[in-house]
């Protein structure tokens, strides 16, 4: 059976919790991604910041993204999946927590991200439909 590492998008990059939101937006543009894992000073996952977070929690409130740190927007306990986890575990974790992007970690190092696009490329139409139904359920 396929693993998280088999379906992930490799080459994900951390952004430090101390970096500003404008830098996060620049890095998202450079990497062509909509989310970045946020790391603490020990390069441990402490959150995820999305392009939507920046817009809704900063720009829409007329705050200056050059003065707001990534740490200020990180909420809750970040979730991640081990690179060796099978796809069933990935789907369960993402569905049960209604997560659209999942960092993949191997030997305590970030090795990739799994997004809905990655799932679409690797799941059957039925599996993908079930995932979308569960994650979008109100």
Automatic annotation (TrEMBL):
Can you give the residue ranges of the CBS domain?
8-66, 73-130
- For the keyword Cell wall biogenesis/degradation, the answer is no
User: What is any Pfam family matched here?
Assistant: CBS
List UniProt keywords, sorted A-Z. CBS domain
Matching SUPFAM superfamilies: CBS-domain pair
Q: What is this protein called?
A: Putative signal transduction protein with CBS domains
């Amino acid at each position: 059976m396929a693993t998280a590492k088999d379906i992930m998008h490799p080459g994900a990059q951390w952004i430090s919790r101390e970096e500003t939101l404008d830098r996060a937006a620049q890095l998202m543009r450079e990497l062509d991604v909509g989310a970045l894992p946020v790391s603490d000073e020990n390069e441990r996952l402490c959150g995820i910041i999305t392009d939507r977070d920046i817009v809704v929690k900063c720009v829409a409130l007329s705050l200056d993204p050059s003065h707001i740190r990534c740490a200020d927007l990180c909420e809750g306990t970040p979730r991640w999946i081990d690179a060796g986890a099978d796809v069933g575990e990935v789907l369960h974790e993402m569905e049960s927590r209604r997560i659209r992007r999942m960092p993949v970690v191997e030997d305590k190092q970030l090795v990739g991200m799994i997004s809905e696009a990655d799932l679409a490329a690797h799941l059957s139409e039925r599996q993908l439909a079930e995932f979308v139904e569960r994650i979008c359920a109100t």
